[in-house]
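Q: What changes when calcium ion is included in the input?
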Amino acid sequence: QPVVDARSGEIVGFEALLRWNSSDHGFVSPGKFIPLAEDTRLIVPIGEWVLQQACLEAMKWPQPTRVAVNVSGEQLLDPSFAASLVGALAASGLSAQRLEIEVTESIFVRDASQAQATLEQVMALGCGVALDDFGTGYSSLGYLRRLRFSTIKIDRSFVHGAATGSRESLAIIRAVVAMADSLEMTTTAEGVETSRELEVVRALGCGKIQGYYFGRPVPAKEAMAMFRQQEARLGGSAA
Ligand code: C2E
Ligand code: CA
Ligand code: CA
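A: The predicted holo structure follows.
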């Protein structure tokens, strides 16, 4: 799914969203199979494959667009995580700066120090780390003090709330943007579906935008086509 710059509307990257078309069950929602993969620890090999594929795809995109990959707590607790990340970068040739790992606060609940140590390794390699679904979980400010996240992703419930006149949602987005700005982190507003929502999160100063308004999750081939369309629109040379 494309992620765009809030001001220019240009694609700054894509988030890799896993899909499973099962021969037995047809399309299975990630909301169903990801928790199962986590419970069975199959998320470790699956997640490694996702990292490899995402890096290979991103190598085809114009520089310096980035790819964001969701990573579960189970993966961060696996001792081979950093090595598999290095492997995915090396095999694809993608520079670490173009890869952003997305984690949710839940990773800090089980083994906070191990998760933090792994994420520090990830950052030392030059990759970004985004804090996903911010505002929906514990939203402990302690996490923000402990790790230099590159991006805070504001959950779509706040985006929707702010656009429908919820003063609480507006205040929360405003506070998160101010905090991110002073911590030198960027913000992504998630789940922007309407022009009204776009207008509101732009006015609130969110840096990046993701949602059906700019594009639904699409197969990797179509991501390439979206870059070509953008090139044509901007009148630049082909990537
Ligand atoms: P997420 O990381 O919060 O991803 C955003 C979800 O919101 C995606 O659901 C996306 O399709 C959906 N979305 C995007 N824009 C809009 C919008 O404008 N409106 C609405 N209503 N929804 C929007 P999806 O693809 O079903 O993924 C669900 C979750 O599964 C993800 O939530 C993520 O937590 C997990 N997931 C997906 N791929 C992976 C993966 O490769 N590894 C891991 N560990 N988790 C993954
Ligand atoms: Ca995500
Ligand atoms: Ca999210």
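Observations recorded in class: The radius of gyration is 18 Å.
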